[in-house]
């Protein structure tokens, strides 16, 4: 597939994240208006709320876009998803005869604020990257026992906290928590000193289900993908996570990129999961290419200093696809809803510079990173900004996600002194 | 506190669960109407949607009750909660001068169907019963290592699945799942053979918070309580729960009783947590009596057979109060929303007949129970109905919750054959 040209000039650059091939969905505000739905095209946003109001898009008797979330469109199902994409493509293509009506509905991204693109129903996070699991397991249990016995048989996941999911650009407050360091006799309540990122992709459920579904059905039900940073307090996690898993260590915030990149836009980049080390049971078997070839990176910028790319990896390093994760999620009969968000798990590759968390990059703090600014880091310092980027590379075009950014602020003083 | 008398005669019985002292909130449908808000009084339901429409209740410019959930009232906060309770008490008290207007708004509970009383925002389940943790830990790790190191310092919890919470009376379908029995060389996909209950109380967050809150603030933010049965597939749980906690084992269903019993109704029954075995850190310290003296029981009824009460215990056996759990839940800055549901964890007492799960009652299947029907059970059979009951006993009155009931149906055949 090659670049599809648009009459929006900026969308035609070979490295622009938002060509006509992409058309990702976000929620923006500009000129004092309330947040509502928009579609990125080049450097601009098409105000689809206005386009619908003016009759340029007609998909439903009820307005779908004059809202601060894309959930109603997601609920409409694959036929309407395809109809919207076709219509947007027709309106914005180079040869469009409706340019005159559409052009006044464009807003510069530079003039807009971005908001959460959808209402998160529930949030689940997985632990399904082979290299990440191997790295973390080796640090904690040694290389022979790195993988738990179930790891090659099911995508291990836990329920996260939907209320903590925020859009890129939201500042992240360093959390307090109960923790017990290796030199502590007793636990104490303190700000986390091992605050970390996790480089992930998030899959968004479009079509709900009520009962077990197959891997193919799961793939069909997914609406799109975002970049996802699962901020993690490693010292809080170490103290709390046995026996029932991470809880407060993962509840401060999870950041996502502002644009939902649709499954349709990613079709040319589908790829297979890695070779199975153990044959999966039938209900989880691969039934087609359901991962995507998406280059990912992590950039760290200390306050007022130069930026350093600290990791580069690819979504194709995952052991389980989002479709396999979603299918597993329904095995017990668990109902899934429009707006459910599934984090892939940390995406690391085979080499040291492919690691998607500081825990792995600094090997638990034993091998601090040296940044381009000359500073060193084992975990995140106050004032550091962390950026995740992602792009799928086509023939003369790319599909970008928009950055997933967060700046870490100092912990507030003693939150319990006020009582 | 003694019985407050109502002109609704059935509410004046000394053992009736719904006297004027209680006034629990539910969602009902009758006579073909859509589900909407009602309040239990004796054998009747006061249709508060109608009462509001007729101007008998005026709390807000917007209607609060013509809805299938109580969330808008919960969002209004403690002053409005108190005003509603005062107004309902005035309308329904023996000496009410408005009986003539109110009486036509009563519907017999026998003629109504009950629905979920609130929209569950997110669901968290704890592991905060001392006897339960001791029992389960002893089975899995021996009596010396029964309690994890963190257990006496924080209320261990995990995020559950809000989409799986159902109202009492909903049938429960035995789940499939991946499991690996002690005699299996490899995992297999099969219906759970160790399907279990967990006897719990659920606390409902009324007032939202965005950042760490104290134990006192947490108690203030709680709106009310329900009975809660956290259905659990022990064989699925055993295979999946390391390292990130229970996932599909707990996602089939969680049943709650249909009436929200308000914190106000339970005030006379407040009691302290047990003596601390280890001093808690300041942010979790008890600041008043925040447990409640509520008798609880579990009744098992095989299809077509006699019922057996298989467990009796009390909510005052918990080591951590719901307020402490909620405060802990916010330590990392996790935002909490109206409608968040917090399961207490399984409530067991010191004696064998006080145990709140079949796992404990049958000691992992090694000591099957003998029911009054003569049958034996280690876990739940298809066709078994499980009922949780709860009541707080006052001086000449009780505060009841309404049963929390579920019948277990056979697993559906091979859900993946259809593909």
Describe this structure in words.
The structure is a homodimer of 419-residue chains. Chain A has 419 residues and is of the alpha+beta class. Helices cover 17% and strands 26% of the residues of chain A. Chain A is built from ten helices and 27 strands. In chain A, strands 6, 7, 8, 13, 14, 16, 17 and 22 form an eight-stranded mixed sheet that branches. In chain A, strands 9, 20, 21, 25, 26 and 27 form a six-stranded mixed sheet that branches. A five-stranded antiparallel sheet of chain A has the order 4-3-2-1-5. In chain A, strand 1 and strand 2 (36-41) form a beta hairpin. The interface between A and B is large, with 65 and 65 residues.
Taking all residues together, what is the mean pLDDT of chain A?
A: 96
Q: Find the CATH superfamily of the largest domain in chain A.
A: Fumarylacetoacetase-like, C-terminal domain
Number of strands of chain A: 27
Task: Please tell me what the overall shape of chain A is.
Answer: globular
β content of chain A, as a range? 25-35%
The biggest sheet of chain A, with number of strands, parallel, antiparallel or mixed sense and barrel status, is: 8 strands, mixed
Number of domains of chain A: 2
CATH C-level name of the largest domain in chain A? Alpha Beta
CATH fold-level topology of the largest domain in chain A:
Fumarylacetoacetate hydrolase, domain 2
Quote the distance from N terminus to C terminus of chain A.
62 Å
Examine the secondary-structure arrangement and name the CATH architecture of the largest domain in chain A: Alpha-Beta Complex
Largest contact between chains: A-B, 65 and 65 residues
Radius of gyration of chain A: 21 Å
- Low-pLDDT stretches of chain A are none
Instruction: Give me the oligomer status.
Output: homodimer
